[in-house]
């Protein structure tokens, strides 16, 4: 059975809910593990066929120490260590083999319209994935929250489940050699 690893960052729980829903969608034909970036492995093993990463948009990109501190001070977010998250994990993780495919997602405000089009944490996530030589299995997906602290907009959890199922299909259609 193919194996997937989903690594997420989440301050208010929305990206974590999406990560788990994607896992649900994948789980029909793929064995899936879901971990927070703070607990992410130091190395991606050759047994991982698909790596999915995702987290919130913060200040038009991925969260970083200053925006995590902003989330704590302005919105009462609880972050034990603001110096580490998905970006830092993606920079540090080792991928010493080929054969793993990747995909990225982010969560973001559903307004205003201009902002919705502009910011893309997932763009940076994809750049970091490509930096490890990981081919992208599918274009990034974006999931919407109705306010900074959530909740997710109606239907987003179901959409994440469907995206997970689509990723499983794409993985089966484009099997990569393990090496
Ligand atoms: C400090 C901070 C900056 C944010 N900046 C943006 C932004 O630039 N664009 C956006 O769409 N949402 C922005 N948001 C809203 C977040 O995307 C939202 O909090 C997140 O998607 C919720 O996911 P989470 O519950 O997993 O943390 C920001 C939120 C915080 C706390």
TrEMBL record:
One of its GO terms (molecular function) is FMN binding. InterPro entries: Flavodoxin/NO_synth, Flavoprotein-like_sf. Residues 4-168 form the Flavodoxin-like domain. This is Flavodoxin.
């Amino acid at each position: 059975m193919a194996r997937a690893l989903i690594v997420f960052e989440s301050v208010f729980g929305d990206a974590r809910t999406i990560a788990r829903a994607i896992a649900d969608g994948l789980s029909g034909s793929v064995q899936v593990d879901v971990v927070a970036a703070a607990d992410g492995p130091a190395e991606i093993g050759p047994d991982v066929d698909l790596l999915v990463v995702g987290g919130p948009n913060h200040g038009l990109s991925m969260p970083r120490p200053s925006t995590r501190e902003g989330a704590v001070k302005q919105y009462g977010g609880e972050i034990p260590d603001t110096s580490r998250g998905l970006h830092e994990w993606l920079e540090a993780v080792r991928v010493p083999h080929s054969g793993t495919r990747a995909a990225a997602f982010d969560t973001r405000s559903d307004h205003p319209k201009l902002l919705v089009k502009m910011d893309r944490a997932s763009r940076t996530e994809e750049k970091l994935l490509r930096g490890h030589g990981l081919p992208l299995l599918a274009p990034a997906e974006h999931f919407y929250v109705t306010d900074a602290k959530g909740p997710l907009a109606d239907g987003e959890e179901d959409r994440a489940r469907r995206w997970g199922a689509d990723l499983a299909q794409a993985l089966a259609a484009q099997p990569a050699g393990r090496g």
